Every structure is written in structure tokens, then in C-alpha cells.
Amino acid sequence: MNKILSLQEDIKDHLRKIISNLGEVGSNFKVILEEPKEIENGDYSTNCAMQLAKILKMSPRNIAEEIVKKIDKEVYYIERIEIAGPGFINFYMNNNYLTKIVKEVITLGNEYGKTTYGNMSKVNVEFVSANPTGDLHLGHARGAAIGDCLCRILDCAGYNVTREYYINDAGNQIKNLTLSTIARYEQLLKKDSKMPEDGYRGQDIIDIAQKLFSIYKNKYELNSEERYQIFRDFAKQYELDKIKQDLADYNVLFDVWSSENSLYEQNKVNRAIDKLSQKGYVYESEGATWFKSTEFGDDKDRVLRKSDNSLTYLTPDIAYHIDKLERGFDKLINVLGADHHGYVPRLKAAIECLSGDSGKLEVLIIQMVRLIKNGEEYKMSKRSGKALTIRDLIDEVGVDAIRYFFAMRSCDSQMDFDVDLATKKSNDNPVYYAQYAHARICSILRQAEEKKLYYAKLDSYQNINSEKSYAVLKKIAEFPKIVIDAATKRIPHRITNYINDLASVFHSFYNAEKVINKDNIDKSIELLALVKATQITLKNSMALIGVNAPEKM
Fold it and tell me: Looking at residue 383, what is its pLDDT?
């Protein structure tokens, strides 16, 4: 934790010691020290005197006066203290202490903002996990942005994060993909082969068949198990490679690609049913095998194996989550689409049954997104005439704007993605506003170098003393705390809010201060250090949402 945030904790500790000497308040008493919304109420404020009134049987005002008498203002950089209203204690800081953050940020560079808060707790974040049967679409794009941002934030907050993609490669979708590929291949052999009823009719299936034909010619003209397996694996890998490339171009990379099919090959699905059965939570009814999920809060029991001996979607998912828990993760976070909302209770029920702690699983539901252009919704790709893909969106808007806009909104709210705003080169566009702030800073530093002026790492900065400067310093100092807040609450939009605030206070500072001034070299050197610290913080915060910080615009 940086010096300024630790100072806030130090003041809280100081208050705790003072309060403990006033009387017995109990070990659970918490001192709350907050930043008031109104600047006239000071830099920090506490209502502890009012909290203590009943405990100490004194008026809040008298308690506040006793506390204030014992506060060591000089040690904690406190300029003055005021008691307001019924007993609020407001602290007005000697803001020169804020300048201590400048040297720390410049020294840490790309590491600024990182903390050990998570204590390297092992977290698995599974997201996207689209079937490898076609292109990624808008919902996948939003889920990929949210999932990746969350992973970056958790990393920064000191967690040991594994990014995982679950490949659904054992169900009917893969069967239909394979049969569709075979039909297209046979058509190339001039056979009158019809596409399966639930087949895939996109151009990519034709492309896959043509590639297979160029490799094998008519070798697999006749139906065989070998043909099925070879075509299945080839088609799946083709689609998966395309997904991986689109995600890589979207600045999303995974640590683990986990296969559903491998769960069957390793007999983990049957073992999952056995584990539930051994605990006494499986029964047979109407020829099917059921899980007593109502025992763990679900609204009804769930079928694991149907009467025709086929498995429901839930069964391999239970096996998959057992596998993740057995890999030693402390927390499993699933980022799922809006259509999975009703699926969560049954999965949590299985984890509660098997591990005794359904809290190990968290599920973030990504709500729907609409694309708006010229004031109207549009869904179709001009290129393909079908649903818009992540590739269409990248071509239309660009990765930075997509990532920023998706990170701006809470994942549990539906959103309209305004293409016109996202591509607008003005301060109305939040990503342009943020990137312009960074480019402006880089321009200032370049101009200074041309005039042989350079920032310096100093222990104190006496010439950084304006209200606009202090506003920037306070915002820079908040960054590690913002990261922790975004990580623990799973809210990436906390970072975009912060980026906008930091850009705003910097623009205000720059408009008020003459940074490069050869008539006052000492002040310029110090202000350039503040500018450099802002640049580092802005770049680091933008990296958390996968957005570039350009040096020129």
C-alpha cells in the first residue's frame, strides 16, 4: 500500500488507540474514516464519536472533543481538525504530504498499483467458452472483455489467476458440425448429400470441406468411423483456431483450454455421478437418474442421466467443476451469458454437496448488448448477411473502443453500444478522452526534453502546491485502493470510472498550470514529475481493461 493510503490507515490506528483509552468499547468496534463528498467537510471524516455515544454513555460532542485533544496532528500531517454537527470529526490535511506519492509512482513504474492483497489465492476464471462451431458474436465479445478485465484486475490485486476456456466438444453441436462437414465434402465428390436438419450452413463449413478435400481427395468417400473422427477433429480444430485468433486480436489470451471430451475419456463424468451417489444424493425414478438438488436450495431435483441413458448438460458440468476444485483453486468464477441465469442454483447445489462450500463458485451473468448506429439497432453483418461477429465489430470500431465500452458498464445491466460515439474523435467519446489525456502527457514530456527540462525523483516537492495539483495527486494515490475494490467486488467498470476521473483532473490541472516554464526551472522540474506520475498511473489503469495508451494522437 502506498504512503498516502497507509497514512489513512495510520490515522485509523491512531484513533483506535485513543478510543481504547476512553473506555471499554469491545474488540469488534470499527473506526470508519471516509473521504467526504463535499470538500468543505475536510479530506477525511469519522462518525466514531456518534457510534460511541451509547457505549461510553457520553454525548457525541464530548466524546469528539476528548478524541481531538489526543490526536497528534504533526505526525499525521493534519493541518486542522473540526468537530461538525452532532459530532463528526473532520480532518483537514497538510496537502504537501501528497507529493510523497510522486517519487513512489516514478520508482515503481509499471508496477504501480499492484498489491499483495489477494495473497496469491488461486482463482480460476472461466469465460467465453463458446461452442467451437462458428464465429464469436456480440455476447461473446462482451463476456470476453469483462472476463479478461477481471483477470487483469485480480492479477494486479495479488491473486494467482488462471484464465480458462471450456471447450464444449462432446455434445450434439460437435456432432452436427461433423455431419455438416461430411455432407459438404461428399458434395465436392459430386454426391447428392443433404445437410443434416440441425446442420451448419455457413461459409466456414464449405471452407473446411474444401481443405479436407485438398488433403484427402476421395480417400474418405465411404462412410467409416475413421472418417468421422478425422473430420470431427479437423473441423473442431479449424473453428477453435479461428476463435483463438479472434480472441488474440481482441487482446484476450487463455492459460488453459479445457476439453469436455477429455472428461469422458478420463471417466470423470461417471465418477462425478458416483460421488454424488456415495453421498446419498442420487436416486432413480421413471427410468432416469436424478440429483437431489432441492436438498441444497434448488427449486427442483435435476436429471443427471435420462431414461435413454444419455446425459444432461448438467452432468459433465458437475464433473468439470469437480475437476477444477481438485486442481486446488480457492475460488471459481464463471462468466456466463444471460441465458444461464436459471442454471446457477443447480450447479451451486452440486458444489455444496461435493465440497460443502457453494461459496467457492461465483457466477457473473453477462446481460444482452444491442449495437446502435445512426440511432437505430442493427444486427446483421454487411459482409455475411448474418449475425454480427466479434471480427465485424473489431473492423467497425477497433479493439480499444470495444474493450473500453464493454468495461464501462456493470455486466448485470443490459447495454446499448453506440457505434457512432465509440468511433467519434472528440471528448464526448470516453475512450478517446482517456487516450487523448495520455497522448497529451507524452507530448508535454517530449516538449520538455526538447527544452532540456527533465522530471526528477525527489523526496519532497515544495513547488507542487496548488489545489489542481493536489486533486491529481489524490487521484493518483487512490489507484491501488481502486484496484482492490474492483477485484473484490468483481466490477471492472470501477477502473473505467477511475480512468475518466484521472483524465478529468489532469486536463483541469494542465489548463491551470504552466508546466514548462524556463523562467522557473525548479517548479517545472517538479511539475514534470507530477505529469510523469500521472502518465504512469493512466497507462497502468488502461492496461487493466486491455486498452492501449497511445503516445501520439
Answer: 52
| 3-class DSSP state of 7 | helix
- Which CATH number characterizes residue 532's domain? 1.10.730.10
Domain residues for 462? 426-543
Is pLDDT at 460 greater than 90 in this prediction?
no
* Strand, coil or helix: 233: helix
Sign (positive or negative) of CA dihedral 398, 403, 404, 405: positive
For 188-219, the pLDDT digits (tens) are 999 999 999 989 988 999 999 999 999 999 99
> What is the Cα–Cα distance from 211 to 217, expressed in whole angstroms?
10
Within-domain flag for 386: no
User: Are 70 and 177 part of one and the same domain?
Assistant: no
Q: Beta partners for 82?
A: 90
Give the CB-side neighbour count of residue 221, counting CA atoms within 13 A.
8
For residue 228, how far is the Cα from the chain centroid? 40
* Residue 1 pLDDT > 80: no
Burial of 452 (0-12, 13-18, 19+ CB in 10 A): exposed
Q: Give me the chain's average pLDDT, please.
A: 94
Single-letter amino acid code for the residue at 537: T
**Residue 196, burial from CB neighbour count under 10 angstroms (0-12, 13-18, 19+):** middle
The answer to whether residue 3 scores a pLDDT higher than 70 is no
Which three-class secondary structure state does DSSP give residue 506?
helix
Quick one: 86 and 185 in the same domain?
no
Neighbours of 412 (CB within 10 A): 11
Q: Which residue type does 528 have?
A: L
**pLDDT of 402 above 60:** yes
What's the pLDDT band for 364 if we cut at 50, 70, 90?
Answer: very high
Q: Total domain count for the chain? A: 3
Residue ending a domain, choose from 34, 69, 93: 93
Q: Are 155 and 171 in contact (CB under 8 A)?
A: no
| Main-chain dihedrals φ then ψ at residue 290, nearest 5 degrees | -120, 150
Task: Band the pLDDT of 378: cuts 50, 70, 90.
Answer: confident
Cα separation, 384 vs 382, whole angstroms: 6
On whether both 435 and 534 belong to a single domain, the answer is yes
Is the pLDDT confidence value at 380 over 90? no
Domain-embedded: residue 449:
yes
What DSSP line would sit under 127-150, residue for residue? -----TTS--BHHHHHHHHHHHHH
Residue at a domain's end among 215, 238, 261: 238
